[in-house]
Amino acid sequence: MKLENKSVIVTGSAGGIGEAIARLFAKEGANIILADCNEEGVKKVADELNKLRRNSAIALKVDVSKKEDTDRMIEVTLEKFGSLDILVNNAGIMDGFEPIGDISDAKWQKIMDVNVLGVMRSIRRAIPIFKAQKSGIIINIASLGGLYGARAGVAYTTSKHALVGLTKNTAFMYAKENIRCNAIAPGGVATNIATSMGDINQFGMAKTQPGLALSPSFGQPEDIATVALFLASAESNFVNGAVLTADGGWSAY
């Protein structure tokens, strides 16, 4: 098994890409903290994983936009598993395709708090642990929206561009401490992120439609999970600061 006895945190793991990553990592022998604001959903996933490997998964209700929640997430991991080896920052929310002329302060701040600030805090808390043990792996789930300007509204696009920058800077800063930080940029994937969108801005949606229509197909969460496993395993030891696109060829158009 590629991740035998590794201690892993996966945020946003009650469904979609996060759940798929947690299930695959558990199959590969990892002990996992499943963190999500959907307490019922994340408990269900943990219960199913524990039927396969007893006491290998722990569900936590975590709002990544709250510092006390991300701090507790790290603390519980150390208490239960004794270490933290891999941090997967998957939790994220979508905007409603609002262009900058229409975005509200509240919407902007909410998306930044979840998609950027929560990730920064989680990594910041994990870095001293990784430095002390001279190893650590960080995987951030970005988006094609972090590489292009016409995949979402201004808030989501900006947040994912920020996540790409955070990934690259962290990788550079801590490379000599044997800490690797990479990101995955998925294209269209069948997940429940649309439930976080709220009201759709018709102007913004119309502007992005031509680009969205170029996507050759929708991926499944499991397609992204396999990329995450590569980044979490020894097979990617020389991969650091990379943003791996997984979009079925969408960005090639």
Automatic annotation (TrEMBL):
Key word Heme present: no
Pfam families the record matches: adh_short_C2
Coiled-coil zones: none
GO-annotated biological processes: bile acid metabolic process
Keyword terms: Oxidoreductase
Keyword match Membrane: no
GO molecular-function terms, A-Z: oxidoreductase activity
Entries under InterPro entries matching the protein: NAD(P)-bd_dom_sf, Sc_DH/Rdtase_CS, SDR_fam
Family recorded in the similarity comment: Belongs to the short-chain dehydrogenases/reductases (SDR) family.
Protein name: NAD(P)-dependent dehydrogenase, short-chain alcohol dehydrogenase family
Source organism (scientific name): Carnobacterium alterfunditum
